[in-house]
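User: quick one
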Amino acid sequence: MATSNLEIARKEYYERLRPNDLAPLWEVMSSLVTPQPASACQPAIWHYATIRDQVHEAGTLITAKEAERRVLVLENPGLPGQSRITTSLYAGLQLILPGEIAPAHRHTQSALRFVVEGNGAYTAVEGEKTIMREGDFVITPSWTWHDHGNESDEPMVWLDGLDIPITQLFDASFAEPLGEDAQSLSRPQGDSIARYGDGLLPVDITPRATSPVFSYPYERTREALTVLARGSQGDDCHGIRMKYANPTTGGYAIPTMATFMQLLPSGFSGETYRSTDATVFSVVEGAGRLELPGETMQWGQRDTFVVPSWCPYRLVAEEESVLFSFSDRAVQEKLGLWREVRGGEG
Amino acid sequence: MATSNLEIARKEYYERLRPNDLAPLWEVMSSLVTPQPASACQPAIWHYATIRDQVHEAGTLITAKEAERRVLVLENPGLPGQSRITTSLYAGLQLILPGEIAPAHRHTQSALRFVVEGNGAYTAVEGEKTIMREGDFVITPSWTWHDHGNESDEPMVWLDGLDIPITQLFDASFAEPLGEDAQSLSRPQGDSIARYGDGLLPVDITPRATSPVFSYPYERTREALTVLARGSQGDDCHGIRMKYANPTTGGYAIPTMATFMQLLPSGFSGETYRSTDATVFSVVEGAGRLELPGETMQWGQRDTFVVPSWCPYRLVAEEESVLFSFSDRAVQEKLGLWREVRGGEG
Amino acid sequence: MATSNLEIARKEYYERLRPNDLAPLWEVMSSLVTPQPASACQPAIWHYATIRDQVHEAGTLITAKEAERRVLVLENPGLPGQSRITTSLYAGLQLILPGEIAPAHRHTQSALRFVVEGNGAYTAVEGEKTIMREGDFVITPSWTWHDHGNESDEPMVWLDGLDIPITQLFDASFAEPLGEDAQSLSRPQGDSIARYGDGLLPVDITPRATSPVFSYPYERTREALTVLARGSQGDDCHGIRMKYANPTTGGYAIPTMATFMQLLPSGFSGETYRSTDATVFSVVEGAGRLELPGETMQWGQRDTFVVPSWCPYRLVAEEESVLFSFSDRAVQEKLGLWREVRGGEG
Amino acid sequence: MATSNLEIARKEYYERLRPNDLAPLWEVMSSLVTPQPASACQPAIWHYATIRDQVHEAGTLITAKEAERRVLVLENPGLPGQSRITTSLYAGLQLILPGEIAPAHRHTQSALRFVVEGNGAYTAVEGEKTIMREGDFVITPSWTWHDHGNESDEPMVWLDGLDIPITQLFDASFAEPLGEDAQSLSRPQGDSIARYGDGLLPVDITPRATSPVFSYPYERTREALTVLARGSQGDDCHGIRMKYANPTTGGYAIPTMATFMQLLPSGFSGETYRSTDATVFSVVEGAGRLELPGETMQWGQRDTFVVPSWCPYRLVAEEESVLFSFSDRAVQEKLGLWREVRGGEG
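Assistant: Done. Structure below.
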């Protein structure tokens, strides 16, 4: 059969396949099994100075009742309209004004909250309330009742991170409202840290999928980083980088999203790094640069930036800096997919 | 502000958001976090009698050289053009003709092969060759060199299952050819079963992500099911249903795809069942019905059918039947997403 | 055969067996496999007021050079001459005088130190020094270099707990001196708590058999107990009882010895409890009673007492009390041997 | 103080300590924490030709009723009167005559049975009966009802291995009779192998402490060894040595006793090996030598021999040989105590 005849025969064959819900793999295989990660996800940065007004403007357009959803999605410019900051993760900036309450609900999706601006709002999880401050990392675990409110006199903005695209892929989303504004509180403030976060654990505890320490205050995290920085320059690529841990397993605090905090000493100039977990960073303190192939992004306090899977990057700190970050590494490691390369051309 | 003015203000606001890669969550939230699984995935069946000719026709249109990709994708009718049989899984029927060899390669994606028709082709994995027969379940683990060929005188068709959409979501695809048609063999046939599958394990073995028993012959599986059926009717929903296991951990044989084999006694009429893992079935022996809400599908030997996430279904066996199946339950359990409900209206 | 003839025949048979290193099981079986735990281990208490002088007197009889071994073994009165406080555990009170240094060494045996009296001596483990205070719990892990000294101006007495009988049973004791008085220090004070004990962990950490947090300061433990006591009366038998945890696994801090700290509110009157792990208690604060079948022991600050396996007991607190305790439960759980019963006759 | 005065003072001090249940550590420390394993356990061999008559003679002195205990303990010559073959393990040879039944009972101690002579007796565990043949390895798990009998027309002798000294150390022995000769059978013969031992597992299985495959027939084990020997000479010290595995975890079949089977090719001359797990060997096939420092023991079929902890040894096979063995390595690994050295002076 001559090539053109073969092509015609194939086309005709493909048309006969379609009604049987069959399709030729050989026409699409190269886009399904790629030699390297090949998504449309792009590096991007959201400068807080640029977007802060728009975040706060949402407060005038969305009522207190809708406040639960008063979030600006950080959409990856390579994935427009998909409500994703990476292929597998959702991120947004949520505004909660003084006096507001978001009704209690729960959903399959795990969520993290990282406080970007403001002090004094609270989140309640599993019968315990925690007051949030800048730099605090708070978890609302999968299928756990949670609600929040702001009894302070200043607005709060936090970075929301959710595993929405993961739950979509597995088609396993469930959600329901509690039917009340706030869950009833059954444990004193500070109970979960005392119970799980001070080197002790309940005698009969069994491993939990999500860390029962649902609030990791920045004050404590910062002090730990400060002590560690006294003894070491840290990793060549990452400086002093630690993961938030689940004390019942030693694993990541959230089963679907790895969360990290890192200190870059002033003048730190990291080596090039790449890994398969596209990563979202939020700048807590300091200023510096993200160096990418053919591009440099300047970051400062409260900025959010994202580095795609397998994209080589370097971090440079112009002053002592602290960066929060999260990625899907927690899942990739469980599935045997995660890879990294240190060094190489930046 | 009157509602219409508010709407206008919002629209204008949304337009100002876009250049900053921001989007309003409140417009899309209900489609992201749904009260129940809500994908477009549909139940479907591929009757082998209907599609067999098209599968074999591929042999005339795709050369031996292209044989590695001579697969007809089973596309879910609800997800056209996406090369998916469920939201998270790929499935296809692969044809390999006598005398053909598919060159050795490896990729991040895990693959399973379940032999639907034919006997005598081989798969080689990690230096060991195994001859395949109908009903055999063979694994090509993530990032492991594998090649196959057909030294018999009959064509073989197997069902391919891969975690392609999962690897896509995490943007972690890697692939490479070995550069040779076949890997060199370093272990005698039967070595992996003797080493890992006979109740023994190497003294110093550490847990493996994927079962080192890469071939589970049907002869042995069938005999086990027969013994078990002597002592029990099995589960009310599933009959005698077993998972293929990784002997180094007790977990699923593949870290991303749970695989099962089940025997339904003649006359078995299962209770209604639903779970969040959309499941692909391949009929090894027997005949029966899949009863869905408002629809019944008749299945027989070599047919493939799929049940979406959270879709209630019942299995009825008109004669003693054996069904192979696979799903993403292995991942959902690791992430804490998996749910099931037994009974209820079908 | 008449009974007496049979007995004679058996005796003669037994004598013929002996040269072949054979012995009749039926003569000893009832003492080997008993219906309930049946060791000679007895309940006992060491009142600090009674023994303190003798502990300090050791300082005049044992030189600084011998100080490493200047320990009074707490010998269970039912197991005289065996250097055991329970069938499986060793305990002793160690005295270290101002200016003394104990040379660095390591051994297979895991050791715990619980400070009973004094403040200011130090222990160094894995390149890090920690200053010890009353109520602190310090670990010297198996096969880890450790040394200690007293640079303060007061003597210190701590309770030593070791798994010596366990290592003896398995005939797996190894020990060696470093050849220097003190190991070189490579990490700043506080490094291990900052690295492993503040809710964070190194990104690439793998599970450790022994907690890398080698020092658990009482100040922090006491504060956690205080918070927990605000929200709960705790367990009916144990009050607020927590285990010291290994943050890399969620398991016990030491793989062979479970360690606990418990707060009994003033007036606490516990229910009867028994378990298979004979337990050693050291009183940090308060006063109360240990009620045993037919016997009551009065305990106060710095006293040590032991409850044998399966011995029913009740704890009564006459004032708010804090008790440190340790047992072999960590091993028994791993081996599937551990049992407990709550309630029942005291 | 002059030395002699010091000695006198110390003696007097020791006497004052005793009434307080205190003892000086410095007098005994060197025997408690030794530089290397230092127990009295000795290498020993029991030639079956020598002891077979005495084993069978027990049948004339111990009635059917007492048959449950008709066992000759293999006492280590270095540990006389202790009913131990190593410091931590018990071993014995049990005789069961045609027609006898041993009443059902259970105990905390785990037991293994390895058939040395005879075919056709049975063991029943968890409602399933298995017929035993020479070379079969059978488990009676901790606290599981078990009974056995001999419905064949020949006597059977098996090697019993129990963790009695371990249970003694932890003072955790429980035992009770069922009150009936035989438990009722609820599963057909072969059920447990089909359910757990053919590469499949029940879908919802959770890890089990002891392998649910309670019988490992020699026929299957031998065939696996034969296949493996085709592809490899095996380990330089051990030949083709495999562990019996728990398919629900990948760990040892029994949580307290590691069990192994090894094939030594004819002419095999192993390298010197030592490890901390004193090991008991039973010869299934073949003949050879055990070379120890200053001593050589000749072994043949059905002989039992023991190598103490840390004793260097070499195995030499004069013909193709198969050796069953067991040790406490399963515990030592859990506790972090296990060590081995390959090579070195024999």
